[in-house]
Design goal:
Elements lengths: L25 E5 L4 H16 L8 E6 L5 H15 L6 H8 L2 E5 L5 H18 L5 E5 L6 H10 L11 E6 L6 H12 L7 E4 L6 H11 L13 E9 L8 H4 L3 H19 L8 H13 L1 E2 L4 H4 E7 L1 E3 L2 E3 L17 E8 L9 E6 L6 E8 L19 E7 L3 E9 L7 E9 H4 L7 H11 L8 H19 L5 E4 L6 H8 L9
Helix pairs in contact: 1-2, 1-13, 6-14, 9-10, 9-14, 10-14
The structure holds 6-O-phosphono-beta-D-glucopyranose.
The site of 6-O-phosphono-beta-D-glucopyranose has 5 residues, from helix 9.
Length: 510
């Protein structure tokens, strides 16, 4: 594909500290009425415009089966921006942005509508200088990817003109299992080349997640102990305090493992466990992530090394809440898990014998995502047993959210005349060290799509390997019927505690 990258003549392109501003371009959004568009995509576009990172002629085309004019679409975006954008609302930014809004009504099988979409894009190239550069954002269920991709191809929308680009953005779920993921990829691959397909795993857009690599590879403090000689085990937790909300249609039959472990948690694990990449370009990162994901093995006894649960009624945030099977749209006998925990091994020299425990759940005690690297005890402690009674294991905890930062836990003498050693925490908090607020993950990722910058987007091979890890666990669970109940507001099913207890360990209570 011939593509001329946009180069701002006033900037040295190799200086990665300077703000990167997208060149002339536009975006077409499919699924404008969905939650993802309203809560994430539209606000992020406004935030990017507000930060001066979009080109002046940036254009946003909404496509949906609604009888709307451009102004109606603009009103929808306006409401979403007012409610969900991160940065303050500025009339002049909004007015300039809204000039580039267009709406094309139609269904995904409507040829006339896609013809109109083509004309709209041509008009934008003429009047707003988008120069043929357009990203197609599929904020729609994957079952429609094929229809939309086919229409884009049919109407010559997927093929860039000389010197311009066309890209497609897709969101998880990237399939239901390995086989369906491959099918999905084939569908997209028939229309777009692999370099033009951007898969969003929004965890990779989070500052704290990108910081895992900065912390590991910019310092000399952590890497020497980042291996089986010093690390006892790793716990990766993504806990949510909310239930499934209005997402029954998506969530039932999907469950916690497919929703979160297959993508966010395995990507986090890959960043924690991988070797140093040659550079931070997409290719080098991918090579290292693929190496580590392909070294993951499952314990032999999946009944003992995994756990799953479903939230029952209980209390959350001081309010009485209903159980999963009572939620609107969920059948009384649903076997979908809302909690999942798995034990994974990484069969390489660095990690041999170090289990990685991954867990996620809805309606747990607190919203928190963290990576805890728990170290082995010191090989010898020249203290009496009573002095170290309340000393735990040292730990390096990357706090992904909320309260973004890092904690190092180690033992310290309690002040006084006796020798007593207790755990203390050393803390780094983003808020205390930086004045800049972290952008939302979607701001970073949408900007990267428009810039054509791929390192933060998982490639198909990573998606496949992740399914390869998960499929046997899902097959094992499918044979077992209903997951175990756990009380809302607690920390998951008893079997998850038992899973760690068998290894002589306990989950952290963040
Ligand atoms: C999504 C999942 O990918 O991530 C949701 O589908 C989950 O179920 C969400 O609630 C959590 O994202 P965040 O950024 O709030 O941790």
């Amino acid at each position: 594909m011939t593509e001329t990258p946009y180069v701002n003549p006033l900037r040295d392109p190799s200086d990665r500290r300077l703000p990167r501003i997208a060149g002339p371009c536009g975006m077409v959004l499919f699924g404008v009425t969905g939650d993802l568009s309203r809560k994430k995509v539209m606000p992020a576009i406004y935030d990017l415009a507000n930060r001066g990172l979009l080109p002046p002629g940036f254009s946003l085309v909404g496509f949906a089966r609604r009888d709307w004019a451009d102004e109606d679409f603009a009103q929808i975006v306006h409401d979403s921006v007012r409610e969900h954008s991160r940065t303050e609302f500025r009339e002049e930014v909004w007015n300039q942005l809204a000039e580039g809004f267009r709406f094309v009504p139609g269904a995904f099988d409507d040829d006339v509508a896609f013809g109109n979409l083509r004309r709209t894009i041509d008009e934008l190239d003429e009047t707003r200088g988008t120069q043929g550069n357009h990203a197609f954002y599929m904020a729609i269920p994957p079952s429609f990817f094929g229809a939309v991709a086919g229409q884009l191809k049919e109407h010559g929308l997927a093929e860039p003109k000389e010197g311009s680009w066309r890209r497609v953005v897709v969101e998880k779920p990237f399939g239901h299992d390995l086989e369906s993921a491959r099918e999905l990829n084939d569908i997209l691959g028939q229309v777009f080349d692999s370099g033009s397909i951007f898969r969003i795993d929004h965890y990779l857009g989070k500052e704290t997640v990108q910081n895992i690599l900065a912390m590991r590879f910019a310092n000399n403090l952590f890497e020497p102990i980042w291996n089986a000689n010093y690390v006892d085990h790793v716990q990766i937790t993504m806990a949510e305090d909310v239930g499934i909300g209005g997402r029954a249609g998506y969530y039932d039959g999907v469950g916690a493992a497919r929703d979160v472990i297959q993508n966010h948690l395995l990507q986090l694990m890959a960043l924690v466990a991988m070797e140093e990449p040659r550079s931070f370009d997409a290719e080098s990162l991918r090579i290292e992530k693929l190496k580590v994901l392909s070294s993951v093995t499952l314990p032999r006894r999946l009944d003992l090394a995994t756990a799953r649960g479903q939230y029952a009624a209980g209390w959350a945030g001081g309010e009485k809440v209903i159980g999963f099977c009572e939620e609107d749209g969920i059948g009384a006998r649903s076997t979908t898990e809302t909690y999942a925990a798995v034990t994974l091994n990484v069969e390489n020299r660095r990690w041999a014998g170090v289990p990685f425990y991954l867990r996620t759940g809805k309606r747990l005690g607190r919203r928190v995502t963290e990576v805890a690297v728990v170290l082995k005890k010191a090989p010898h402690q020249p203290f009496s047993a009573t002095s170290t009674e309340s000393l735990g294991q040292n730990a390096i905890v990357i706090r992904v959210q909320p309260d973004e930062g890092m904690t190092i836990r180690f033992g310290s003498k309690v002040p006084g005349t006796a020798m007593e050693i207790r755990d203390v925490n050393m803390d780094f908090a983003y808020g205390g060290s930086f004045t800049e607020a972290s952008p939302e993950a979607y701001e970073r990722l949408i900007l990267d799509v428009l810039l054509g910058d791929p390192p933060l987007f998982p490639r198909h091979e990573e998606v496949e390997l992740s399914w390869q890890i998960l499929d046997p666990i899902l097959a094992h669970w499918a044979k077992k019927g209903r997951p175990e109940d756990y009380a809302s507001g607690g920390w998951g099913p008893a079997s998850a505690d038992a899973m760690l207890a068998r290894d002589g360990r306990t989950w952290r209570r963040p």
